[in-house]
C-alpha cells in the first residue's frame, strides 16, 4: 500500500521590515537563544536583531559561522550551545549557515528559527541539511524529525543582498517541478519517506508558474533594491513553495548532478548552488528526452536572469570527458536522488548529456 507523507514548518513570516519581530517571536518559543551568522551577514543585520531582542527583553549569545556546513563546524557550534545552555538556535544568513543551524538544534534538542537574508535557496523551510566536507565536497544529507519552528524572511534585507543570490534562488526553485514530476513518474520517494501528495505536486506547479510569470520582472526590481509584489511572490516561491515542493515532492537528477559537480576542482566552485542546479535541471530535461521547445523555454528563461547554460559559463569548457564521467559517478551514488529519474542511466550518459546541453544552448544564441 502506498504511503503519502507531507510535512512543513510551524510558521512562516515574510515581508518588508519583519526582522524587527524576531525578538517577540523568539520569546514565544524560548528565552536563551544562540544566534549564528557569518561575519558579513552579521555586519548587516546585527543592529536590527540586537534592537529586536532588547525590545523583547531577551539576552542572546552570538557565534560566527565559518562558512562550511561540515560536521566539524556543526560540532564546534554545538559545543557553544551546550556551554551557554542555549534553549533555541537561530540562524541568520544563507543556505549553508541555515543547514548548519538546523543540525546544531537537532544535536541540542532545541527549537530552531531560520532567518534567511537571501532568497537564494529552498533550504530555510526543509527538515534536512546538505552536509559537506571542510573542503566543500558534498558528503550527504542529514534528516530531522521536524521542520524549523519558525521562518522569518525580511524582503528589504533580501533585495539588498547581491542580485545574483536572488536569481540563484529562482534557478534552484525552477528544479522543483521538474524533479517532482520525475519522482511521480518513477513512483519514487520524496525527502520525508513517502510518496508525493497531491498538495506537494500542486505547490511545485504553483512554484514554477510564479517563476515563469514574475521571475524576470522580480529580477529587475531586486537588482535595484526595490520590493514589489513580483519580488514578494518570487521570494515566497524561492523560499517556501520550493522548500515544500522539493521536500514533499522529492528530488531527482538536477540536484544529484549539482552534487556531482562538487567532485570537480577549479572555478566552478565560485558558482552558487542555484547556478549549478540550473545546469543540472537542463541535463535532467535532456536525459528525459524533452522536446526542443521545452529545453529552449528553460534555457531562454535562465539566460534572461543571467544563469549559466553552457560549459564555458560553468567554467568547464576545458574539463575532460573523464572528469565529467566522475560527475556522473557521484551523481548516481545510491545514497543520492538520481534514481528517482532512472537507475539505468550511466555516468557516461550523464557526461554526454552535460556536453549536449552546452551544444544545444550555444546553438540557440
UniProtKB/TrEMBL annotation:
What GO cellular component term, any one, is given?
A: cytosol
User: What are the boundaries of the signal sequence?
Assistant: none
Q: Which reaction does it catalyse?
A: glycerol + NAD(+) = dihydroxyacetone + NADH + H(+)
Positions contributing to NAD(+) binding: 38, 95-99, 117-120, 126, 128, 132
Instruction: Write down the required cofactor(s).
Output: Zn(2+)
Q: Which InterPro entries match?
A: ADH_Fe/GldA, Glycerol_DH
Query: Would you tell me the protein name for this molecule?
Result: Glycerol dehydrogenase
* Source organism: Lacicoccus qingdaonensis
